[in-house]
Design brief:
Shape: globular
Strand content: 5-15%
Bound molecules: pyridoxal-5'-phosphate
CATH superfamily of the largest domain: Type I PLP-dependent aspartate aminotransferase-like (Major domain)
Structural class: alpha/beta
CATH class of the largest domain: Alpha Beta
CATH topology of the largest domain: Aspartate Aminotransferase, domain 2
Number of domains: 2
CATH architecture of the largest domain: 3-Layer(aba) Sandwich
Length: about 400
C-alpha cells in the first residue's frame, strides 16, 4: 500500500518551468504564459505599510485567524462590494488561499470522506483532499455546460461518504463562472445532506465581463476562500482568507492555532492598506489591464489555430483546445518551450478527460510580451508545418 504522501502528484507546470531553466544561456528570454501570476508590482500603498511595520520592528505572532484590523477591513470590503454584512470574527486570515483551502478541508473532512472536485479544475485541490486523508472524487464538467457542474451532476455524484464539494468561480483553468442562483440551489441541497459547499473565489474581483458578486450573497452556510495573491498582485506575500460559517469558526480557529500558529504578521500589516482607496484604484487598474491583455492574446491564439471552447468570464486564463495542432499537449508544451521559448501549462495538470488536447494559457503579462509570444508561436507553427507535424 502506498502511503498518503506518495499519492501526491507533481505539478507538471513546474516541469515545464524546470525545462525552461535548462535552455542554453544564449537563448532569448522565455515568454512565460505558464504561471498564474500577474507581472505587476504590489501597489505602492501596500508596500509602504509593510515598510512601516518593518521599521517598527515588532513582528510577532498574531491571533490564529489574523489581526482584528485586517479581519474588519475584509468584512467591510464585502459590505462595500457585495452589500453583505459579515461579522469580522467569521473572517479567518490564512497564508494564501492555499492554507485557506487546506484549513477548510481539514475542518469538514474526516479520513475516508469524499470531496467532489470538478474536472477541469485547480490541481492542488485533489492533493489537499489526499493530504487530510480524504478521497477526491472527480466531477466531470463539459464545455457545453460552461465547464461548471450542475446541481443534478452533484446530486448524482453524491454518495454516502461524500461530505463536501469544492467549486471555483471564476475557475482556474477555464475562467468559467457559476451563476448565483445555481450556487444557491447547490448550497441548499448540499446543506440538506449535512455537507458543505466550499467556494474558491480567488478570482472574484477579476471579472472580465460584468461585476461579479460573492457566493456569500446567497448563503451564509458557504465556506468562501479568497486571497490577496491575484487581485493585489501579492503572490509572494502569502496571504488570503476564509469566510467561515458561524458553526465552523471554533474548529477552524483551533486548527489554525495548531497548524499555523498565525498568518504572517508583516503581510497582514501590508494587506490592511490594500483596502485604502489608492490601493483599490491601482488594483482596479490592473484588472482593467487583464481585460485588455485578454483581448490581445485570446483572439491572437485563436487566429493561430488554438480553439477556445469557453470564453473566460474572470481571472486571467484561457483553456485552449489544441487538438487541431497536436495529439499530445504535454509534448507540444515541451516543444514550445525548447523551440520557441514560450511557456504554457499542459492540460494534464487540470483535467483527466481531455489532458492530451488541452493547454492553459495565463495572460497577465504586458502587451509587448504577449505580442512577442504570439510572433514566436506563429513562427514555431510555420516551421512545424514545413517539416511535418512532429507528433
Ligand atoms: C483556483 C485557485 N485557488 C487557489 C490558488 C492558490 O492561491 P494562493 O496564492 O492564494 O495560495 C490558486 C493559485 O493559482 C488558484 O488558481
Amino acid at each position: 500500500m502506498i502511503n498518503r504522501a506518495e499519492a501526491i502528484r507533481p505539478f507538471y507546470v513546474m516541469e515545464i518551468m524546470a525545462r525552461a531553466q535548462r535552455r542554453p544561456a544564449e537563448a532569448p528570454e522565455v515568454v512565460s504564459m505558464v504561471v498564474g501570476e500577474p507581472d505587476f508590482p504590489t501597489p505602492a500603498p501596500i508596500v509602504r505599510a509593510a515598510r512601516e511595520a518593518l521599521d517598527d520592528n515588532r513582528i510577532r505572532y498574531t491571533h490564529a485567524l489574523g489581526l482584528d484590523e485586517l479581519r474588519q477591513a475584509i468584512a467591510q470590503d464585502y459590505q462595500d462590494r457585495d452589500q453583505i454584512n459579515l461579522p469580522a470574527h467569521r473572517i479567518g486570515v490564512t497564508a494564501g488561499a492555499s492554507a485557506g483551502l487546506l484549513l477548510s478541508l481539514a475542518a469538514v473532512l474526516s479520513p475516508g470522506d469524499e470531496l467532489l472536485v470538478p474536472d477541469p479544475g485547480y490541481p492542488c485541490n485533489r492533493q489537499f483532499a489526499l493530504a487530510v486523508g480524504a478521497i477526491p472524487k472527480r466531477l466531470a464538467t463539459h464545455a457545453e455546460h460552461n465547464y461548471q457542474p450542475s446541481l443534478e451532476a452533484i446530486q448524482q455524484a453524491w454518495g454516502p461518504k461524500t461530505r463536501a464539494v469544492l467549486i471555483a468561480s471564476p475557475a482556474n483553468p477555464t475562467g468559467a463562472i457559476l451563476e448565483l442562483k445555481t450556487i444557491q440551489a447547490i448550497s441548499e441541497w448540499v446543506r440538506s445532506k449535512g455537507g458543505w459547499l466550499i467556494m474558491d473565489e480567488i478570482y472574484l474581483r477579476l471579472s472580465l465581463q460584468e461585476p461579479l458578486y460573492s457566493a456569500l450573497t446567497v448563503s451564509n452556510d458557504i465556506i468562501s476562500v479568497n486571497s490577496f495573491s491575484k487581485t493585489y498582485s501579492m503572490t509572494g506575500w502569502r496571504l488570503g482568507w476564509v469566510v467561515i460559517p458561524e458553526a465552523l469558526v471554533g474548529v477552524m480557529e483551533r486548527l489554525a492555532q495548531n497548524l499555523f500558529i498565525s498568518p504572517p504578521f508583516l503581510s497582514q500589516k501590508a494587506a490592511i492598506a490594500a483596502f485604502s482607496p489608492d490601493a483599490r484604484a491601482i488594483a482596479d487598474g490592473y484588472r482593467d489591464q487583464f481585460l485588455r491583455q485578454s483581448k490581445v492574446l485570446l483572439p491572437g491564439l485563436e487566429a493561430l489555430g488554438f480553439r477556445l471552447p469557453v470564453q473566460p468570464a474572470g481571472g486571467f486564463y484561457g483553456f485552449f483546445d489544441v487538438s487541431g495542432l497536436t495529439d499530445d499537449s504535454f509534448r507540444f508544451c515541451e516543444e514550445l518551450c525548447d523551440q520557441a521559448g514560450v511557456l504554457m501549462a499542459p492540460g494534464r495538470d487540470f483535467t483527466e478527460d481531455h489532458a492530451q488536447s488541452m493547454i492553459r494559457v495565463s495572460f497577465p503579462k504586458s502587451e509587448p510580451v504577449l505580442q512577442e509570444g504570439l510572433r514566436r508561436i506563429q513562427a514555431f507553427l510555420a516551421r512545424r508545418s514545413c517539416i511535418g507535424r512532429a507528433v
